[in-house]
Predict the structure.
Amino acid sequence: MTPNKDLTGHKLLVITPTDLNPEYLEHLHSQFPGLKVVHSKFDPWRSVGLPPDVSDDDWKTVTILLTGPKFPTREQAPNLQLVQLQSAGANYILDNPLFKDTKIPFCTANGVHGPPISEWVICTYLAHQHRIPRFLDNMKEGKWDSEHGSDAPDIQDAVSQRVGILGYGSIGRQVARVATAMGMEVYAYTNRPRPTPESRHDDSYYVPGLGDPEGVLPSKWFSGTKPEEVDEFLSSGLDLLVLAVPLTPQTRGMIAAPQFKLLAGKKTYVTNIGRGPVVNTDDLMTALDEGWIRGAALDVTDPEPLPKEHPLWHKRNLIITPHVSGNSSSYGPRLLAILDINLKRLSEGKDFINSVSRKRGY
């Protein structure tokens, strides 16, 4: 890319469901005086079509777009050079012609969710370990059940427990940071080998001071794309398994009955904050019924939304939340921080952060 320090000739269209902070607009103008900014207050997640207030002329001259899952055609936006997504996941763009049939860089919001999702992972795990759902039920009945209190032999704290993180990206690395602070041992799994310190570095966005960008926290690394390589990782004596992989043809259904049986020896607790179809739902219910795993926490399900009559709702030792683990009042500012970094990289002619690989699909 050719450097263009003030981004002269570029037009940024920001599509968000809320107003754009005037201070952020002032910041953009001071950083990139040549950049024209257009904002459309429109919810691309809950609305049909494109924003009605964006004119054909605006689409024709837009070079940078921040949006959710609604995209123009290449003909509508012939000058588009960069798409910044609002989401960490990118599975919904893979079949869109604007991504599939062009070379336009698409960048995710990967890293925005690290703090809230890692808190959710640890929160649900500790809730299960310390029997919090049971005590909440007892509280509603006014029942003082000290038999299952702090001295119960089946209650374990986190010290020296082993967490396996399947998908060691920015979210997984923040989970590792929090788990390490509690005295847990971290095993990491990535699709590509990471044999050297340099290869373990991750160039994704991180909230400053958080995560594990250098990749120093895991005591052991696993890698590969073959089922038997994943199975080796699952057989490594995990107390907690965190599924943090994107949804791709390779990851769809990767955790099914054979994998749950591998976890049975340690009765691993399974947490899914990736995508619902990574786990075979029928096999998960069997694993819970048969006691192959000690429990599970799901922020994503298959199907999603989970129908009211679905039997998964009624399984024991299960926590389900409606895809909200990443919610945070800091989401917007962090998303704009990623946009900021990519605008700076565009102005300097450098590669973007959080770019979606057309080869890997994430």
